[in-house]
Amino acid sequence: MLARAPRHRLIQRAPSSSSSSSSSPMSAPPPAHASRRGSAPSSAASASAERWVEYDCDGTSLCALVVDAPQEAAIRGAVPAVLVAHTAIGVRDDFVLDAARRAAKELGAVAVACDLYGSRETVWDAEDRRRYMAELQDRNVLLKRMEAALELAMSQPGVDKAIAFGYCLGGKAVLDLARGARPEVLGVVSFHGILDAPALALKPMSASVLACHGSADPFIPEDQFQAFLRDMADRDADVQILTFLGAKHAFTRPEKTTQEDDDAGFQYAPKAATRSWDAMKRFFIDDVLAQD
């Protein structure tokens, strides 16, 4: 459990919209764009109300976007919360915010786009990213940040359970949340997340795991991947691994198309992006939530 319960404060309400998202149900989330300093989230349409909520984790002020479940889901009674964990550029990334909006709609859930940094802007500067990520090298700190977001999610009206997914850094974060063995977390999905074996308390994992992984991801060497498998086995985890042959890191990101990106190990793979999103939905709806 957290040493300190998070304090929640509504700081911005985004208007709801009656129009639907421009992304089709079979497409990947739209690309990320630079967010202006202090700007509102992207204008991707959603039928659900949303708001920015400030909360706390051991003295660090964090801020998450909370997207309400669609009315037709909420009217049926209790709904799940889905936590969405960001990449190294932070929670103000339009790609992550649009993924949270889409997940709320397609999963019938309250979506919480988690804040792992406490930044109030998109973190494009490499030095700033290193500073924020240095704090999270201690995986117990990363786990506490995810648990603080979980507390925020579970405090939303009508929420009785949680699932989570994340990209890159966020994939690592949701896997650590599963390692934390909180009973309200039923399942997590990692998209090109870091697959490793962190020095976290060894607990049997109650959450099921789906790891969507690119076989050509240079950030996951074979020995590290094997250590991940051993760690999952040691935790008696229920794990599925969906591997996309030839896919590199960040295969869900439509903006990763340049030669410079490719040379650095990043490359968008449209089929992998679409198939991994669809696999996530089937995993959550047909497997994790159906068994609850």
From TrEMBL:
Region named Disordered: 1-43
Domain Dienelactone hydrolase: 78-284
InterPro entries: AB_hydrolase_fold (IPR029058), Dienelactn_hydro (IPR002925), FrsA_esterase (IPR050261)
Pfam families noted in UniProt: DLH
Molecular function per GO: hydrolase activity
Transmembrane segments: none
Positions with biased composition (Basic residues): 1-11
Coiled coil (UniProt feature): none
Low complexity compositional bias, start-end: 13-26
Record protein name field: Dienelactone hydrolase domain-containing protein
Taxonomic source organism: Pycnococcus provasolii
